[in-house]
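ARCHIVE RECORD
Type: protein–small molecule complex
Small molecule: iron/sulfur cluster
Source of inputs: curated submission
Record status: active
Notes field left blank by submitter.
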Amino acid sequence: MPPIPMGEPARPRREPILSVRNLETHFLLDEGVVRAVDGTSFDLFSKQTLGIVGESGCGKSVTARSILGIVESPGKVVGGEVMLRRDGAREMIDLAKLDPKGDRYRAIRGAEIALVFQEPMSSFSAYHTVGNQIIEAIRLHQPLTKKQARNKAIDLLHMVGVPKPDRRIDEYSFELSGGLRQRVMVAMALSSDPRILIADEPTTALDVTTQAQVLDLLRQLQDERDLAIILITHDMGVIAEMADDVVVMYLGKEVENGPVDDIFHNPKHPYTRSLLNSIPSILARPRSKLSTIEGSIPHPYARPPGCPFHPRCTVAIPGLCDSQTPRFLPMGDRQGVSCFLHHGPSGQSMPSGKDTGARHDAV
Ligand code: SF4
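STRUCTURE (tokenized, with ligand):
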């Protein structure tokens, strides 16, 4: 099931377990307001892997932190909904309305939604063994004795493929390789049997072989535990390998979403196309130049008017894209895009399949 464009109802037969609507997270700084997340919407379903992709600074990680209620000050969720269906519950609760430091949020964070960070080295305390940190995470949500929690921690380490877990449990994070640290981080995230796992660039700091192993591990755990995964990455290769559906973000906005096959074979947004073109190809001629996206992401305080991508867009329409903001429109059943190339004469979406060739007629 794809992420649903803003305002669209979910498919009737399947209910999302997490529904984010028009999420806005701003950082209120002396220099001005940084709109790190500026109206993002998507749905997440059980057993689904939803990829959120974009360059650094596009709002992916802040989206994850907003869902978990761990946005660092002076950041704040200022609008939108983060609706969570708790285990076995019919009604959804809006996490955006809870106090991020309150008991209700604490009971959900870690227990129902867990996070795997990009760099586990900085996420573990160097003063405590990894075992003690997992045991603490287990006992935060489950009434187990220390011995029971230790046994569960060893089981978890075994489950994520840490060799000799009964010995590794007493080691410190700096004694482990990058791949093992990431496995331990996954074990800690799963310590309270969450239904949703948010993996924020989980393989970026790893070599290619270890990266493949960690991705395999996530897939295996998803199958075994019916996990829903939000996978945050800048790497379209990881998206192709892992995701069922994709949200493409640029400057805090969702610019395109849809099933991974549609996004890869029929991308609608020029930014999505640029991301796809910048994937290195094994078939490329030796020493041929890699395609890159022109220009760079604007400074957060210098957000351009109109379409946020227009300064870098090679097919921008002068007089329109630099002054007006395109609406996010559904394209067919499962895709959505925010680009004037796909707006019809009266601002509605073009029929699916019409493409950039129609752009000048479309405005
Ligand atoms: Fe490019 Fe205009 Fe589409 Fe923005 S709205 S992506 S500038 S064509």
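CURATOR ANNOTATION: The longest helix spans residues 208-225.
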